Amino acid sequence: MKKISLVAAVLVFGVALNVNAVTVATVNGKNISDTEVGDFFAPMLRGQDFKTLPENQKKALTQQYIIQDLILQDAKKQNLEKDPLYIKELERAKDNILVNVYQEKILNSIKVDSAKVKAFYDQNKDKYVRPASVQAKHILVSSEKEAKEIINELKNLKGKALDNKFSEIAKARSIDPGSRNQGGELGWFDQSTMVKPFTDAAFALKNGTITTTPVKTNFGYHIILKENSRAREQIKFSDVKKGIENGLKFEEFKKIINQKGQELLKNAKVEYK
C-alpha cells in the first residue's frame, strides 16, 4: 500500500472537516459559510446548531456577521492596526489572556477525590430532585363565553382527534402569541413555572384530557389539554457527578487563587500614595 504524505493527509483531513460547510452569502466576492457564522455566534447560541435554526434567524445572524466583517475590513483599510489606541487595547488584551492562562493552569491542576464528590451528593440529595411536571397545551381567549364554546366543541373528542382539533383551534383563536403558532404547545413545566390557577388545573387533569370549565387567570380564560406527566424523582448521582466535581473544583480554585494573591501581595513592596 502506498504511503500518503503527512501534508497530503492534513489537506485531505481539512477538506473532510469543511465538506459540509454551506455558503450562506457572498460579500465583495468572498464566500461566507454557515460554519463561520455558527462558530462566531457559538457562545450566544449555547449549544444550538446554527444550521438547524429557522431561516429568518439564520439570515439575521448572517447579516450581523457580515456587518462585523465589513467593519473589520474597513478598519484594516484605515490602517488602524498602527493606531496608538489599538496598540494599547491589544496589550491590555494580551495581559488579560495571560492572566486567564495562569488561572486556567491552576484550575486544571486541581484534582477532586471521587469520594468527596459522592459525599457531597449524599449530603445534598434534596438539591438534586427533578420536580413533578406536566406537558400541556392551552388555548387562551379573552372571554369566558368563548372559552365555554371551545370546551363544548372539544368535549366529545379523545386521543389523536382531540389533540389535532385542539391544535387547530389554538392556531386559529388563541390570543397567546408565544404558543399559538405551535398549536398551543407549552412543553414541560413544574408547579413553580406557571401562575397558580393554571398550574392547579393542569396538575389535576388526567393525561389526555381537557379542563371542563374555563381556567381564569390575569391573562384571560384558558382551556388546558394535559398531554403527559412525570412524577417527582431523585436525579441519579451519575447524571450530576460531573457538575458536582466541577463545582467543588472551582471552590478549591477560589481558595488557591485567593491564597496565591495574598502571598504575592505580602512579598511585594507596595506603597500606597
UniProtKB/TrEMBL annotation:
<feature type="domain" description="PpiC">
    <location>
        <begin position="131"/>
        <end position="228"/>
    </location>
</feature>
<dbReference type="InterPro" id="IPR046357">
    <property type="entry name" value="PPIase_dom_sf"/>
</dbReference>
<dbReference type="InterPro" id="IPR000297">
    <property type="entry name" value="PPIase_PpiC"/>
</dbReference>
<keyword id="KW-0732">Signal</keyword>
<dbReference type="InterPro" id="IPR050245">
    <property type="entry name" value="PrsA_foldase"/>
</dbReference>
<keyword id="KW-0413">Isomerase</keyword>
<dbReference type="Pfam" id="PF13616">
    <property type="entry name" value="Rotamase_3"/>
</dbReference>
<dbReference type="InterPro" id="IPR027304">
    <property type="entry name" value="Trigger_fact/SurA_dom_sf"/>
</dbReference>
<feature type="signal peptide">
    <location>
        <begin position="1"/>
        <end position="21"/>
    </location>
</feature>
<dbReference type="GO" id="GO:0003755">
    <property type="term" value="F:peptidyl-prolyl cis-trans isomerase activity"/>
</dbReference>
<protein>
    <submittedName>
        <fullName>Peptidylprolyl isomerase</fullName>
    </submittedName>
</protein>
<keyword id="KW-0697">Rotamase</keyword>
